Amino acid sequence: MNPLIIIPGVLFWSGLYAGMKDALATVIPRERIEVVPLNLVDWVGFPPSPERSTNRVMAELDRSIAMMQDRFPGEQVTLVAHSGGGTVAMVYLLEQEFGGDVYYRRSAVGKLLTLGTPFETQEYYARLKTDFIAQHLQPAFFDECSVVSVVSDDYEGSLEKGMIERVCYHFYQNVTGDGRQKGDGVVPVGSCRLEGARNVVISGVEHMPTPNTRWYGTKEGVAKWIQWL
User: Where is the AB hydrolase-1 domain (predicted)?
Assistant: First the structure.
């Protein structure tokens, strides 16, 4: 398999993805896997400037891709991005100026696989990215870079059922305005659909990288989507 870079989700840091790296290392040599080194400040900013988070994370992603190019010359990189990290990756790959920054390494990336990434959202800061993607993404993009959008449908949002369903309802409503959907507990399935990509729905996985959960980055979670790398 090609060298692989993991991109953490919004407000998540690199250490949370050690388990994902371990799981992937059972089929890909560990030296061919890197996690973009991010911390909470990269997402929030100091002083707080969340509107610049995409630019800070793109800079770190660019350094990671450059490092992989030096380490494995001539090989394309696969990006695996969780949650809002997936829309950061798409903005980066579009090679269009975003907030004053633009990068030109799309030819270095052969595939982007996203995990619970909403490409349709009403959240303000997330929409800075999704609106930009909708404006600039062209069908020809997919001739150069394969995109697979993966999302789990394990959790139903409902106000008439238990506590978990009610919590999911509010998460989904916050993303798209409609809480009565299925999703991964945070992001509804429908919001992850990206026209032109391969859209995949899995089960048995949840969104948040919290202890004692079977999220996208656990051994069991990785087994659900590794076939699409």
Answer: 2-106
**CA–CA distance, 187 with 51 (Å, rounded to integer):** 21
How far from the centroid of its chain's Cα atoms is residue 66's Cα? 20
The reported pTM is 0.97
Element (H, E) at 55: helix 53-71
The verdict on residue 18 lying in a domain is: yes
Is residue 182 a part of any domain in this protein? no
The pair phi, psi for residue 115, each rounded to 5°, is -125, 105
Tell me which residue has tokens 């999911």. 168
Percent of the chain with pLDDT over 90: 98
Domain assignment present for 163:
no
**In a domain? residue 167:** no
Would you state the pLDDT for residue 210?
86
pLDDT above 90: residue 211: no
Express each pLDDT in 60-106 by its tens digit: 999 999 999 999 999 999 999 999 999 999 999 999 999 999 999 99
The residue type at 137:
L
What is the predicted pLDDT for the residue at 178?
Answer: 96
Number of domains in the chain: 1
CATH code where residue 204 lies = 3.40.50.1820
What CA–CA distance (Å, rounded) separates 229 from 80? Answer: 9
Q: CA 210, CA 216: separation in Å to the nearest integer?
A: 11
Residue-number span of the structural domain to which 44 is assigned: 4-151+187-228
Determine whether 211 is exposed, middle or buried from the number of CB atoms within 10 Å of its CB (0-12, 13-18, 19+).
Answer: exposed
